[in-house]
Amino acid sequence: MGVVTFPGTLDDRDTQRAVRVAGAEAVPLWHRDKDLKQVDAVVLPGGFSYGDYLRAGAISRFSPVMETIIEQAKGGMPVLGICNGFQVLTETHLLPGAMLRNNHLHFVCRDQKLRVETDRTAWTSDYSAGQEISVPLKNIDGRYVADERTLDMLEAEGRVAFRYLDVNPNGSLRDIAGISNEAGNVVGLMPHPEHAVEPLVGTGRTDGLGFFTSILKNLLKGANA
Ligand SMILES: NC(=O)CC[C@H](N)C(=O)O
Predict the structure, then answer these.
(1) Which of 20, 52, 25 is CA-nearest to residue 39?
(2) Which domain holds residue 197?
(3) Could you identify which of 11, 75, 126, 131 might form a hypothetical disulfide with 210, taking C-beta atoms 3.0 to 4.6 angstroms apart as the criterion?
(4) Pocket of ligand 1, candidates 9, 83, 100: which has the most ligand atoms within 8 Å of its Cβ, to mutate?
(5) Which sequence positions are flagged as catalytic?
(6) What is the ipTM of this complex?
(7) pLDDT tens digits, 149-168
């Protein structure tokens, strides 16, 4: 599984570790490489790629590695964008909508309760629809927005993948924490599942591991089909 590092990425190492904890091989990918080294899936981790200059994800969108990822994602390759990675996915238009500054204008860092709304994506099949999980959240540009028509379409097509529970930490419309593309191979969310995969770390919860086991099982199923 490929894990992309842009200049300013923070969570690439934790993401690589999460991939390994799930039992897959983590392959580091550098933003200047167009070659994806034959990985079967890609994770865009969190951080501040290119310093979040102009707008989070706005420059990363034009990096050589994204050129190949966009092309392959359209062909069905699974891609997960976490936090800054989600911001990159909206900027590339692989996912609809946009991320704005949190409504209270502060950086948020908390354990966040979420509801996994669908198990019908490549990255959530190991969860059950309606399952409640808690993973860390840490960002300042986390407010998901889209026009009403797009929001209605996402709801109708079952593409709202995660919703904030208890607290909406940033003013995201309809409490949306993450969404998927139509085919379900591209998923983006603001909270950080890669920081909740081992019982000895953080709150001790492993609620985030399911993202990485989901994709691994799906890839193995595909390979054995
Ligand atoms: N943790 C992160 O990925 C931070 C994301 C983003 N740069 C923000 O602050 O909103």
Answers:
(1) 25
(2) 2-224
(3) 126
(4) 83
(5) 83, 192, 194
(6) 0.93
(7) 999 999 999 999 999 999 99
Task: Count the domains in the chain.
Answer: 1
Instruction: Report which ligand 1 atom has the smallest distance to the Cα of 82.
Output: 3
CA of 189 to the centre of ligand 1 (A): 11
pTM listed for this prediction: 0.97
* Phi/psi of residue 5, nearest 5 degrees: -115, 120
Any idea what the CATH number is for the domain that residue 56 is in? 3.40.50.880
Average pLDDT for the chain: 97
pLDDT band at 225 (very low <50, low <70, confident <90, very high): low
